[in-house]
């Protein structure tokens, strides 16, 4: 147990103080600055998993987080993983330079055109930093 932690209730001030002492002086957050970065969310029908994995490999996106069996509804209808709406989605999130946006959008549109009834969507947000 850290020295300043005992049976007392921790306050945010003590947590920050402990974290500041524990962090190496040379540690820096990886804050994207040049080039500007984006956070991309890719929601898609699980039937498109192979195509999405190929997209990630082709664009050399090696760091991502994925969620399986995500429920939702959009242009292609409800994907609720039940008896009435048996389809189900997946979700993939990754950070990449803003300059990649046109290539990603084109790749997603190509998959959507190839499989118009399955559902795939790219959501783009600013990325303020990665620690």
What's the topology here?
Layout: H1 12-22, E1 37-45, H2 49-58, E2 65-70, E3 72-74, E4 77-79, E5 89-97, H3 101-114, E6 120-126
Antiparallel strand pairs: 1-5, 1-6, 2-5, 3-4
Which regions have little confidence, pLDDT < 50, spanning 5+ residues?
1-16
Give, in spatial order, the strands making up the sheet with the most strands.
Answer: 2-5-1-6
* Main pleated sheet: 4 strands, antiparallel
Mean pLDDT: 79
CA radius of gyration is 20 Å
Distance from first to last alpha carbon: 25 Å
Quick recap:
The chain has helices spanning 12-22, 49-58, 101-114; strands at residues 37-45, 65-70, 72-74, 77-79, 89-97, 120-126.
Task: From the structure above, extract its key features.
4-stranded antiparallel sheet; two-stranded antiparallel sheet; 3 helices; 131 residues; globular
Structure description:
With 131 residues, the chain is α+β, with helices and mostly antiparallel strands. It has a domain at 37-126: Alpha-Beta Plaits. Helix content is 27%, strand content 28%. The chain contains 3 helices and 6 strands; from the N terminus they run H-E-H-E-E-E-E-H-E. The protein has helices at residues 12-22, 49-58, 101-114; strands spanning 37-45, 65-70, 72-74, 77-79, 89-97, 120-126. A 4-stranded antiparallel beta sheet has the order 2-5-1-6, with helices on one face. The longest helix is centred in the last third of the chain and has 14 residues, at 101-114. Residues 1-16 have low confidence and may be disordered.
